[in-house]
Amino acid sequence: MISRIKKSIVLVFLICAANSVLAEKKGTEKLSAEDTFVEEKNVADGAGQNMASEGSAIDPWSGFNRTMFSFNEVLDENILLPVTKGYRAVVPDPVETGVHNFFGNLGDVGTFFNSLFQLKFHDAAHNISRITANTFFGIAGLIDVATPLGLEKKNEDFGQTLGYWGVDTGPYLVLPFFGPSNVRDGISLLPDSYLDPVTYVEGADARFWLRGLRVIDIRSQLISTERLISGDRYSFIRDAYLQRRKFLVADGAVEETFDDDGF
């Protein structure tokens, strides 16, 4: 019992630290194969334009948010980042790539279901074809064989589904243990958990290690992108997150700037 409690505490800290920087990935790092360096740079440039001023309609809880942001940053700097650097130091690059592909394949399951929820049947067929190819021909997703075949990775989650059907984002919100979000995306964390295949893996220990490894993989992907962050870190990550989410919900058909009362 004590051992399980210790594992739960460690995992909570890892999740907290990873999600506190996850917006950097959504704003400045390639989330899928179709993203390009140009898109990353555009997001980074846009994030530096202070699209959502503090105290505005989009970020009315900036005091609370900054406190939670600082809390999450401390966990990242003192726990997750050192662990991730150790992981990168001892794990060969091909293995690290395989791990990343494996979790990407699991993530495609949620994308498939959310494509259905949005009645994007062509995308759903695309995603199930991608999952099938990578699972059966890519050794359970360790090798991405789908992308070279033209089955590019897509990105959908329940927050995007709600946005597709017209649900407003609500104010920007930094969650303790889950990092940058908004009211709509925060509520969507629970439905997303039910679409995560790891949830259905038998054995608490197996789920623990899978989730922990996925958190480390996420953080590993972000290390090289921190050079894109400039100015106030909180504002940059907030604006990058908001721009990226708006981009994803609209399937790329968005304006370059934010309207403060546009949620």
How many helices in DSSP terms?
Answer: 11
Mean pLDDT: 84
The rough form would be described as globular
pLDDT below 50 for ≥5 consecutive residues: which ranges?
Answer: 4-24, 26-48, 258-263
Spatial arrangement of strands, main beta sheet: 1-2
Supply Rg. 18 Å
Number of strands: 2
Percent of residues in helices: 55-70%
Order of helices and strands: HHHHHHHEEHHHH
* Structural class label: mainly alpha
Q: What do these coordinates show?
A:
The chain is mainly alpha-helical. It contains eleven helices and two strands, in the order αααααααββαααα. A two-stranded antiparallel ribbon has the order 1-2. β1 and β2 form a beta hairpin. The longest helix has 29 residues, at 62-90. Residues 4-24, 26-48 and 258-263 have low confidence and may be disordered.
Task: Lay out the secondary structure.
Blueprint (H helix, E strand, L loop, with lengths): L1 H19 L1 H7 L8 H11 L14 H29 L2 H25 L3 H17 L20 H7 L7 E4 L3 E4 H5 L1 H6 L9 H19 L10 H17 L14
Antiparallel strand pairs: 1-2
